[in-house]
C-alpha cells in the first residue's frame, strides 16, 4: 500500500494495476471503488495455496476512459460486518491525461 494517500498519473486508454494484500480465508476482503475508471478484471493469488488462514495478493486491473481526476478507494473488512471506522482503508488520486 505504498501509494495509499498519493497521486498517480496515467494516459487515457491505458491500464493501471492495483495490488493489495488480502486474506479471504478469514473472511476479510477489499471492497474497491474506482470512480471514473473501469475495472476490467481482477485476480487473487494465495501465497500458500490450500493453507487455511494464509493470505495472498489481490490484483485489480483498471482502464482510464476519459481525462480527469478520479479516486480509487477501498475498505478492508468482512462483508457481513458493520463498518466501524476502524477498518484499513486506501485512497489514491488518479489523474488521467
How do the helices and strands line up, and which of them pair or pack?
Blueprint: E1 7-10, E2 15-22, E3 28-34, E4 37-46, E5 56-64, E6 68-78, E7 88-96
Parallel strand pairs: 1-7
Antiparallel strand pairs: 2-5, 3-6, 4-5, 6-7
Structure report:
By secondary structure, the protein is mainly beta. It has one domain: Immunoglobulin-like (Sandwich), CATH 2.60.40. Helices cover 0% and strands 60% of the residues. It has strands at 7-10, 15-22, 28-34, 37-46, 56-64, 68-78, 88-96. It has a four-stranded mixed sheet, with no helix packed on it. The chain has a three-stranded antiparallel sheet with strand order 2-5-4, with no helix packed on it. The two termini are 24 Å apart. The mean pLDDT is 93.
Short description:
The chain has strands spanning 7-10, 15-22, 28-34, 37-46, 56-64, 68-78, 88-96. It has 97 residues and is mainly beta.
Unreliable stretches covering 5 or more consecutive residues = none
Radius of gyration: 14 Å
Q: Which structural class is indicated by helix and strand composition?
A: mainly beta
What is the string of SSEs from the N terminus onward?
A: EEEEEEE
Proportion of β residues? over 45%
As laid out across the biggest beta sheet, the strand order is: 1-7-6-3
Q: What does the main sheet amount to?
A: 4 strands, mixed
What is the count of helical runs? 0
